[in-house]
Design goal:
Helix 1 packs antiparallel against helix 2 and helix 2 runs antiparallel to helix 4. The protein has one domain. The chain is built from 5 helices and no strands. By secondary structure, the chain is mostly helical. The longest helix has 18 residues.
């Protein structure tokens, strides 16, 4: 049974769902889609997302493997994660 994002009642759970999606896309080699999922999670619950080690790990993995055209965006996102909220 597919999960429908709008049926997740809590914003933090929606954001966590996007993080899970980002990790799956990263493992699949879909770097742009992984980045988009991380940005969506960050828009929903920035404090929640920025405190998660899994997000930092995923961004680090993407920085190491993403195409050069995507790396500046990932670096900017990584900087946002490191900045105090």
């Amino acid at each position: 049974m597919p999960i429908v994002r709008r049926e997740l009642p809590i914003t933090e759970r929606k954001a966590a769902f996007f993080v899970d999606i980002a990790q799956a896309f990263a493992q699949w080699g879909k770097h742009d889609k992984a980045y988009q999922a991380l940005r969506a999670a960050d828009q929903l619950a920035p404090q929640e997302i920025r405190s998660r080690p899994a997000v930092r790990h995923t961004v680090s993995d993407l920085l190491a493997t993403a195409p050069p055209t995507l790396r500046p965006h990932l670096r900017d996102f990584a900087d946002q994660l490191a900045a105090p909220a």
